[in-house]
Design brief:
Length: 154
């Protein structure tokens, strides 16, 4: 049982033991998801390397920019400041240094990836229903009734 993993394999991953997980990163304050992220190796999450962000699209591919072009990482929902852009000197690699306790994280399984990417697309196209994404993060499943209630109130 080894589905194509879709993880990025490179020197950074190899330096960290050669294994990875996907994490859904959410704002600690309002619990709304911030990004989908490939975490390489063990240890606590202190930085988000820009080349490891998978969603949303607006946060992807930013590693090609100069440091001064990178904005602070802010929750798109409640504007809570989550991290500041840095260059991780050891690898000359762009990252956001996270403030302690600013984000929550949840391990994402391969079969959940597509749904979560869709959530982020919806978020970007402003069809996003906050409560549904929150429930995805907390692992709770909303009933059809609850979902309809949320739509009706929009
Ligand atoms: Zn927030």
């Amino acid at each position: 049982m080894s589905p194509k993993s879709g993880f990025k394999h490179d020197k950074y991953k190899n330096t960290r033991g050669g294994y990875s997980r996907w994490l859904l990163i959410a704002c600690e304050k309002c619990k709304v998801p911030v990004c989908l992220y490939q975490k390489d190796g063990p240890g606590i999450l202190k930085r988000l390397y820009l080349d490891r962000v998978i969603a949303p699209v607006k946060l992807c591919g930013l590693q090609k920019n100069a440091l001064k072009k990178i904005e602070k990482l802010v929750c798109s929902h409640c504007s809570f400041l989550l991290g500041v852009p840095i260059i991780y000197e050891k690898e000359n690699r762009l990252a956001w240094r996270l403030f302690a306790g600013a984000v929550e994280k949840k391990i994402v399984k391969a079969n959940e990836m597509e749904d979560i990417k869709e959530d982020f697309e919806a978020l970007e196209s402003s069809k996003f229903i906050e409560s549904i994404a929150k429930s995805r993060f907390s692992g709770k499943t909303l009933s059809l009734e609850e979902v309809q209630k949320i739509y009706r109130h929009k």
